[in-house]
Amino acid sequence: MSRKFLETEGPGWVAEGIISEEQRQKLLARYPPEARALGLLPLLGSILVGLSALSLVAANWQALPNVLRLALLLSSLTGAYAAGAYFLRRGNPDLGHGLIGLGLILFGASIILVSQIYQLVGYDVSGLLAWVVAGVGLSYVYGSRLLVLLTVLIGAAVQTYCVEALGSFSYATALLVAGGLGYYWWRRPEVVSSNVLAVGLLWQAALLVAATHSKITWFFVPAMLVYAVGDWQPQRAGGRALQGPPLVAAYLFMFGLATFGETDTYANVLRPPLLPYLAALAAVFALSVAGKRARGRLDTLLDWLLLLPGFYLPGGLPLAVATLVVLYAHAGSVLARAHRHEDPGQLTIGAVLFVAATMVAYFKLTWAFLDKSLFFLLGGVLLLGLSWYLRRRNAQVLAAAAPPVAQQAGTPPITPPAPSETSSLNV
Question: Helices 220-232 and 274-295: crossing angle, nearest 10°?
């Protein structure tokens, strides 16, 4: 159930006497208004203005004297910050945060250009690390999701440069993104910031695996650590938003394993040492279970089905069957949870996952002997049967809950007439 649905249907319920106006207000209080989506105009404006300024200066950079170069950098940097502060004071947060974001971009560009002016050759990331520190600090000062997004992108760019150009992983950059922005997210678990931070942390984890030349399945240990942190978040919406990207990554991996894991050629890429890998994954799993129990979210425990290490099985039929069982079980858990919570969005996701698993099962197991028309017929019958069952269960739940709700709304219960009254009426 969503606030928009309550706002649309609530007045009709009050008019029909199903609930009272006081109860409608209490229901609305349980579903606060969602935060506004991240404004794309300030973000795109900051990026385009920054790129245009950089391209103009870059075209004439070599012809400018060093003093003029420094003056240009300082004036543009201070001008962006001053203009952002001005519009924030005037009550225009979108434009103000956009200009502050532009100043953050110019700050990083200034670091790079100053090093070129004075030919400061560096073999570490200390200069660019200051850029990440500035982004984290500005995110706290202004509390802007735009600055959080820019800082995550800056951290990803700095880490990519370290891995690709310097051949090393910057643990300081990863800690700043995970720790600095992680604490910011914990205090302000907005959905957009949660998704952005989760994607940024997954990128950092992927670069760590690449820099250390580890098996790619080690990626899921830090990825599911991000998921486990979401289990401890008191606000459910923010926690689930943080868990979305890790779950998508795990599902895509399991889907790819079911589709392409036909031979043992993947063994050298996917199979880390068994005991260390399982021990690390079990530790993260225990942390996740503790968080689910503490926050009353054990109904999402079956998300961990996607992390079953089926890649240790031999390729071919055993691996295909095992991964398909996992995909079906996960889709069923999503559908069951959506039914319990009456969540149409999750119900749609569960149906899509069920269809995807069925398609893989057909192409992997029954393509050679099951006619396509029969396959689609069976799939359609299964989905129609599932839809009928869920609608029937939903109607039963609503019918069972209707009398108590009507009584709470103030409708007097209907009592049968007394025996004496009945006899007099018959006469």
Answer: 10
Helix or strand run (H / E) with residue 185 = helix 181-187
Token pair for 401: 């809950």
Q: How many residues does the chain have?
A: 427
Sequence ranges of the domains in the chain: 39-55+62-121, 125-213, 217-370
Q: What region does 316 belong to: left with phi over 0, alpha with psi -120 to 50, or beta? A: left
Neighbours of 411 (CB within 10 A): 14
377 Cβ contact list (under 8 Å, min separation 6) = none
- Give the angle subtended at the CA of 274 by the CAs of 269 and 275, to the nearest 5°: 145
Residue 249: which of 214, 228, 224 has the closest Cα?
Answer: 224
Quote the pTM value.
0.74
Alpha-carbon torsion (260, 262, 265, 266), positive or negative: positive
Tens digits of residue pLDDT in 20-75 = 888 888 877 776 665 444 445 665 666 677 677 667 666 776 777 888 888 888 88
